[in-house]
Amino acid sequence: MRIFSYNPGHDGAVAILQNAQLVLSVEEEKDSNYRYSPLSGANILNVIGEMDDAPDVMCVGGWWPRDHHEFLHGSNRNAGYRGVAANDVIVAQTRFMKRSVRYFSSSHERSHILCAFGMSTLPKGTPCYALVWEGGIGAFYEIDAALNISLIGDVLSQPGNRYGLLYGLADPTFAKDRPYPRLSDAGKLMALASFSTRSEPSSDERRLLSFLLDQPFQPLSAYEELSDAPHRDVGLDDPEFRNFVGIYSDAIFNTFYRFAQNHLTKGRPLVIAGGCGLNCDWNSQWRETGFFSDVFVPPVANDSGSAIGTAIDAQFHFTGNPKIEWDVYGGLPFRMEGPSTPNGTRFTMPRPTRSPNSWRTISSSGGSTDDTRSVPARWATDPSSPRHSVTPRGCG
Prior knowledge:
The protein is 27% helix and 18% strand. The protein is globular. A hairpin with a 5-residue loop joins strand 1 (2-7) and strand 2 (13-18). By secondary structure, it is α/β, with parallel strands linked by helices. Strands 3-2-1-4-6-5 form a 6-stranded mixed beta sheet, sandwiched between helices. The chain contains 9 helices and 13 strands.
């Protein structure tokens, strides 16, 4: 079965599965494109150019309503943002290259969970927990042996947005009535946390923590003590602010850890997805708690992995298999010819051997036509690889 999938929001990506193998994953922000970019028509055409036949299934990840009509009446194409039940999917027929193919859409929430479980080393049928924490969702789930997903509880709404909001407090260029942080703020804040000594917060900082974490998410302008708030507009090099960043980071983590201690059974494995899964400090802390028997975080924990997750969900729906084989070199081949110089010549890179992980070299039976396939790895890096890698980036 060949599955073509893309996610429609920020961190745009296209993924192709063939016979339970990830044969192509293209992220829009690669090739020096802007971070967090939605998928472009150019990259869709690039991916189609790698295909030698129409897919069996076309997938679109669920997202927020596209317009007011869809908000009021729902959609027969967009499965929406939240929802974890196996029947909360859209299955239909569509057209591709004058051929009738199956159409599939499931929620953005499911795409994160299926991405993490499907790419993990956990065998099919392994009960486990899942954590999705990102800009909008902050929740724990239980996955049973049949891959039924149950929401255990929403721990903290909008943890990624809450995290990034603190960066805006100290940044004098950030409008304090802006409803959401900038997409890049969370990753920058993670870097600043590395400078923290994690000392005890002051009384003013405790009140700020309460506003940021104990109330519904709201802009900084809603804070009654904003004019006298600690760290307001102090700049990002201020040592006291950097120290508070670490305190704040630990406070968010501890909110989720306390929930796990009170509502989850110790000793089961955990898979993590969502943009907060790119936070190296938090990932290390989950392992260090010893609460879970194993912790897996895919290298595309953010929305770049949503296309893969929706494809895995479609594969599970049509075949019953929620697992895939993958390696980190699933991108398009590198373009070796650079831009023209003023005299008309082109800079050309040495051309390494093309990776066997391509649409054309995967046989119809699912096996590779080249026995030198690289072994799947979680965080492998290899500067000699001729393909773009699926690698972890900044956190958010």
